[in-house]
Amino acid sequence: MRTVKLGLLGVGVVGSAVAKAIEEGDGLTGRSGVRLELVKAAVRDLSKPRSVELGPDLVTTDPNEVVSLPEIDIVVEVMGGEDPAFDLISKALASGKHVVSANKEVLAKRGDELLATAAQHGTKLVYEASVGGGIPILNPISDDLLANRIDSIRAIINGTTNYILTRMSSEGAAYDDVLADAQRLGYAEADPTADVDGFDALYKIAILGRLAFGTSAAVDSIHREGIGRIDAKDFRYAEELGFTIKLIAAAQRNDGGLLLRVHPSLVPLDVPMASVNGALNMVEVEGDLVGPLWFQGPGAGPEPTASAVLGDVLRIARQPDSNGAEQSTTEPLEVAPMSGHRCQYYIRLTAADKPGVLALIAKVLGDASISIRSVIQMDADETAGQADLVIMTHSALEANMQEAVSRLRSLDVVIELDNLIRVESYSHSA
Ligand SMILES: NC(=O)c1ccc[n+]([C@@H]2O[C@H](COP(=O)([O-])OP(=O)(O)OC[C@H]3O[C@@H](n4cnc5c(N)ncnc54)[C@H](OP(=O)(O)O)[C@@H]3O)[C@@H](O)[C@H]2O)c1
Question: Which of 97, 120, 369, 377 is most buried by its number of CB atoms within 10 A?
Answer without folding.
Answer: 97
